[in-house]
Amino acid sequence: MKGLRLIATGGALPGRTVTNEELSRTVDTSDEWITTRTGIRTRHYCTEGENAATLAIAAAKQALQRSGLAPADIACCVCATLSAPDATPSVACQVQAALGLPENRPALDINAACSGFLYGMAVARGMLTTLGGQYALVIGCEALSRLMDPADRSTCVLFGDGAGAVLVEATEEENVGVQNSYLRTDGQGLPFLHMKAGGSVCPPSHFTVDHRLHYLYQEGRTVFKYAVSNMSDITATIAEKNGLNKDNIDWVIPHQANLRIIDAVASRLEVPLDKVMINIQRYGNTSGATLPLCLWDYEKQLKKGDNLIFTAFGAGFTYGAVYVKWGYDGSKR
Ligand code: COA
Description:
The chain is an alpha/beta fold and 333 residues long. It contains 11 helices and 13 strands. The strands form 4 sheets. The chain has a 5-stranded mixed beta sheet, with helices on both faces.
């Protein structure tokens, strides 16, 4: 196997759309603050019966159907999430069951926070290389509305729910698909974005509930600085190493955490915003789901041979950049 080609996308959004105006009725914020400081106008929240796994299943079914493949063709399933319905079993096992993927193949979740989809592609590639098989499902899915403190204005306006899925194919062709990947971690970032309770160190108790310790905690200003510098540096590095520049980069696909971060990454590459995939205004930050949801939204504009640079940054800190040469024209619907 030489390369990993992306061959179809799928996506799913939950039923409830929440506007900035709606949030401003429950916390001290405003549409003006959220729009100018983040770029977000609406986000989707799961309703009863919806969760990260139901969204993952819907997105994966669509990617499979668009690819024209059968469940038996799928050699492995990797699901990136930090908001799985349960600590165990995994979302990937639920996808395996719901889609009828063969039992004698691996399916697992990974947690690399907002960089999860990029890590997931690398895991899928590794599994296809070591275990064999031609096709893998890589999914990013989140139900972050269930992890946010609805009373904390500094986080509750930022996140949304959704899932994106991509079918990837192991190929002997070199000049298509994933060309280069840089994946990084920086544990210095641990205190700035995390959940204080709910794991095995600080399991749920009356104390943790009373002190609202089960919600996502973020020091936004610090995370912002690291996100700008790390995403800008790593995209500049991957561009330079692969002979890419403002003239031959067709699309930048950045993690959607804040429009000002997206602007900074694009400026560093000197790439105009009409070559940058942006859907933060409609979905907010959907963590591991953001990059496949961008692809799902923009697929119809992509052409075979386009040079795409993905970049992400998330809790940990984790971050990375991946260079992909796109493999087909338009959308597979
Ligand atoms: N509405 C109104 N005011 C708000 C607010 C809201 N929703 N959230 C915060 N504020 C206030 C703060 O309380 C602060 O007030 P103060 O100066 O009186 O203390 C003021 O706005 C500025 O806060 P600050 O945190 O400096 O704002 P910011 O410009 O950094 O924007 C974030 C906050 C969270 C939008 C921004 O820091 C961010 O996007 N961080 C990075 C997120 C990220 O990249 N995550 C990646 C991994 S998911």
